C-alpha cells in the first residue's frame, strides 16, 4: 500500500505488522528492511518503539522480533470469519500447491479491488501481490468478472465514479469498451489477463492473473480468488490453472 495520504511512520508500522502476518515467524531487522525496502534507520526506530510499548518482543539471542501476546489480545475480540477461514483459505492453499503460483483473495471496496490475503508462490521465479494492494475494478480482469456477474447499472455507475475520480479517462477506456468487457466476462466462469491488457498497468509488465468468483454464503462480502505470476509461466500452465480453479469452486459449492 502506498504511503501517499497517510502518516508515513504509521503506514510503515502497519507494513511491518503485515510482514509478520505473511512470514508467521520471528524476523530480524535485516529481514524487514530487505522485504519492505524502507530505510534501515526508520525500521530500526519503529521496531524499538513497538517493542518498548509491548507490541513486539525481542530475542537478544537471535536478534529477532516477534508480535507479542499484547498485540494479539488487541484484536482477539474480532470474530474470525468461519467461511473464509474454513473454506476459502484451504482452497487458496490447495491452488497454490497445485499450481506453484501466487494465490490472492480480493474483495471490492469502492472503485477498487482490494487484495486482502496473499499466499506466496513456490516457483523459483515469482511475482508477489501484498495484502493491501489495490487495483481499479474497471481496469482489472478479476474486477470485470466480478462486476459482470452483478447488476449492470451498478457496474456502469462504478465506471462513471472512476472517471469522475480522475483515475481513468474516457479517451483511455470508453464506456463502450467497458460494457464490451462486461459482456465478455458475463459468459465466463474464470478469467485470464496480462498486465498489457490494461491502459494503465499497475502490476509488473510481465505479470498475469487468472481468477474466479467465490460462491459465497448469502450476505457475505463478494470474494474473488486470483492466481498470479509471470505471464509466460501462467500461459504454459493455463489449462492446469483453470481446471484447478473450477475444481475448487465446485468443492465450495458443495460445502
What class do helices, strands and sheet pairing give? alpha+beta
Which strand-content bin applies to the residues?
A: 15-25%
Instruction: Please tally the β strands and state the result.
Output: 9
Order of helical and strand elements: HEHHEEHHEEEHHHEEEH
Mean pLDDT: 89
End-to-end C-alpha gap: 34 Å
Q: Which CATH architecture of the largest domain is right?
A: 2-Layer Sandwich
**Domains (count):** 2
Any idea what the radius of gyration is? 20 Å
Contiguous helical run count: 9
User: Judging from the principal axes of the Cα atoms, what is the shape?
Assistant: globular
The stretches of 5 or more residues where confidence is low (pLDDT under 50) are 1-5
Placed side by side, the strands forming the largest sheet appear as 6-5-4-9-8-7
What fold name stands as the CATH topology of the largest domain?
Beta-Lactamase
CATH hierarchy class name of the largest domain: Alpha Beta
User: In this structure, how is the largest beta sheet organized?
Assistant: 6 strands, antiparallel
Helix amount: 40-55%
- CATH superfamily grouping of the largest domain: GAF domain
Strands, helices and their partners?
Layout: H1 8-23, E1 27-28, H2 29-36, H3 40-52, E2 56-59, E3 64-67, H4 69-74, H5 82-99, E4 102-109, E5 112-119, E6 134-136, H6 141-148, H7 152-164, H8 175-186, E7 190-194, E8 207-213, E9 224-230, H9 231-253
Antiparallel strand pairs: 1-3, 2-3, 4-5, 4-9, 5-6, 7-8, 8-9
Amino acid at each position: 500500500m502506498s504511503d501517499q495520504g497517510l502518516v508515513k511512520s504509521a503506514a510503515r508500522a502497519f507494513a511491518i505488522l503485515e510482514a509478520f502476518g505473511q512470514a508467521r515467524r520471528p524476523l530480524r531487522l535485516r529481514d524487514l528492511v530487505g522485504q519492505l525496502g524502507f530505510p534501515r534507520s526508520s525500521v530500526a526506530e519503529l521496531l524499538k518503539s513497538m517493542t518498548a510499548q509491548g507490541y513486539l518482543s525481542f530475542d537478544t539471542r537471535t536478534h529477532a522480533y516477534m508480535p507479542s501476546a499484547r498485540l494479539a489480545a488487541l484484536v482477539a475480540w474480532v470474530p474470525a470469519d468461519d467461511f473464509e477461514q474454513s473454506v476459502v483459505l484451504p482452497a487458496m492453499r490447495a491452488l497454490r500447491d497445485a499450481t506453484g503460483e501466487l494465490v490472492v483473495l480480493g474483495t471490492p471496496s469502492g472503485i477498487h479491488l482490494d487484495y486482502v490475503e496473499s499466499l506466496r508462490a513456490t516457483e523459483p521465479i515469482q511475482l508477489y501481490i501484498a495484502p493491501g494492494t489495490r487495483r481499479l475494478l474497471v481496469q482489472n480482469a478479476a474486477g470485470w468478472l466480478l462486476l459482470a456477474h452483478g447488476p449492470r447499472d451498478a457496474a456502469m455507475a462504478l465506471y462513471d465514479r472512476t472517471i469522475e475520480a480522475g483515475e481513468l479517462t474516457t479517451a483511455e477506456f470508453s464506456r463502450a469498451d467497458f460494457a464490451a468487457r462486461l459482456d465478455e466476462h458475463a459468459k465466463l466462469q474464470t478469467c485470464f489477463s496480462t498486465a498489457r491488457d490494461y491502459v494503465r498497468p499497475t502490476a509488473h509488465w510481465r505479470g498475469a492473473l487468472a481468477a474466479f468468483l467465490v460462491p459465497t454464503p448469502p450476505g457475505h462480502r463478494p470474494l474473488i480468488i486470483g492466481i498470479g505470476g509471470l505471464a509466460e509461466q501462467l500461459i504454459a500452465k493455463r489449462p492446469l490453472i483453470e481446471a484447478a480453479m473450477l475444481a475448487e469452486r465446485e468443492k465450495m459449492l458443495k460445502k
